[in-house]
């Protein structure tokens, strides 16, 4: 299979068409962004690390019988995905208080939530991805109530699998962001990426093994992601 025309260029990925209408070729790039894109930096090697990490995670999710967009890893920076139309929601699940949740409720980071909490953010850079509720999702005609319930159920199910995957390498899954997409037949499946760019991962000794090292300038992103990848590869 070959990549053909560029379909879309995002903050950290390029999407190309292939000869197969139902398949896209994705290339991970080295750009790191924070503050909703206001801070941008090229970090050599970041694309390759995220592609390899997300590929390993999606292979594990596929093996658990979950339907995802992931087909195969092509190279260190490229993968093949089923073509979906992305639902404009960032679906965030929180197990532990951190980040914007800590700020919103004036809480210390690190409090373990009794029950995981699922949140929706409307994917719109111009609006700074606002926090929205189910009724806003309906109002914006993004998904039906049945689909909203499906997204929440699926995210909780994915959380259970991800918690185990990360625990195997000694990391606590604090929170993460998912994106879902619709296949041509309308079915909703998991898409996008799952990596330290989109998940908060804390080590037992309190180290941030995720993008917070970049957001907060508290460590080296490449060293951190390399350690995550090396540990994950041992669980293959
Ligand atoms: N997240 C993401 N993309 C975004 C915003 C958040 O992948 O545009 C992830 C983030 O890495 C974290 C979770 O979603 O794992 C919750 O992020 P939060 O709302 O706390 O926002 P932040 O503090 O990162 O701005």
**Span between termini:** 26 Å
Biggest β-sheet, characterized? 7 strands, antiparallel
CATH class of the largest domain equals Alpha Beta
Number of helices: 6
How many independent structural domains? 2
Name of the CATH homologous superfamily of the largest domain = ATP-grasp fold, B domain
Give the structural class: alpha+beta
**What do the pLDDT scores average to?**
97
| N-to-C series of helices and strands | EEEEEHEEEEHEEHHEEEHH
- Briefly note the CATH topology name of the largest domain: D-amino Acid Aminotransferase, Chain A, domain 1
* Share of helical residues: 25-40%
Q: What is Rg? A: 17 Å
In what range is the share of β-strand residues?
Answer: 25-35%
Bound molecules: uridine-5'-diphosphate
List unreliable stretches of 5+ residues.
none
Query: What is the name of the CATH architecture of the largest domain?
Result: 2-Layer Sandwich
- Per the principal axes of the C-alpha atoms, what is the gross shape? globular
Total beta strand runs:
14
């Amino acid at each position: 299979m070959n990549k053909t025309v560029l379909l879309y260029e995002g903050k950290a990925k390029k999407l190309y068409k292939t000869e197969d209408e139902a398949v896209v070729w994705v290339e991970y790039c080295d750009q790191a962004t924070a503050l909703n894109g206001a801070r941008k930096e090229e970090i050599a090697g970041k694309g390759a690390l995220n592609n390899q990490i997300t590929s390993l995670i999606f292979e594990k999710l596929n093996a658990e019988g979950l339907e995802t967009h992931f087909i195969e890893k092509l190279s260190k920076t490229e993968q093949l995905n089923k073509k979906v139309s992305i639902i404009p929601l960032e679906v965030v699940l929180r197990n532990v208080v951190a980040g914007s949740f800590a700020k919103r409720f004036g809480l210390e980071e690190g409090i373990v939530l009794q029950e995981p909490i699922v949140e929706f953010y409307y994917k719109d850079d111009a609006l700074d991805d606002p926090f929205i509720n189910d009724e806003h999702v309906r109002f914006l005609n993004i998904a039906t109530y049945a689909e909203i319930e499906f997204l929440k159920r699926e995210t909780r199910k994915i959380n259970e699998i991800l918690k185990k995957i990360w625990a195997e390498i000694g990391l606590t899954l604090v929170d993460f962001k998912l994106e879902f997409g619709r296949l041509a037949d309308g079915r909703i499946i998991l898409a996008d990426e799952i990596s330290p760019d989109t998940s908060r991962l804390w080590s037992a000794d309190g180290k941030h093994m995720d993008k917070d090292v970049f957001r907060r300038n508290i460590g080296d992103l490449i060293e951190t992601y390399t350690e995550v990848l090396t540990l994950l590869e041992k669980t293959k």
